[in-house]
Sequence to fold (156 residues):
Amino acid sequence: MGKSRRIILILLIVILAIPVLYYLSFTLICPAINDARADRIERELAGMPLPSNTEVLETASFCGNTSGTGNHVEIWAGVLIYSTLSENEIHQFFSDYEMVWTVPKDLTEQYPEPRDFIDFSFFGKQEFYNVQTQVEGYYIIGGYYNAVTQHDHRGH
Fold:
């Protein structure tokens, strides 16, 4: 094989590899990077200091377009806690967090605004519904975080 044929073959491979690499980065690599950041944020939330009589029940996160408008990716992460403290005490303790939300007794009321991406498996458990008719004290603490990269198919 001549030198010119090798050069043409290398150029052809490069030309074919560029769209494949772009596709892989958009669908696999960059989403994995954003997911790793979301997991890191979840671990931080799970280990955050808590007031007395309070326990972490579950953490959750979401990477994607949280507002439904525009082409952007962001991360929402939160922790579901249970506490016997008053709602006012919880809001004061977690005042540095963007979101401190009291979970209603009736989950059909859902969240303060449409947030389908806030998903805690604990809400699907039967014991949650048994307790919810009698006890208050469930809160979601969390917020929105910047994604590492916007090159993620979930934001478009």
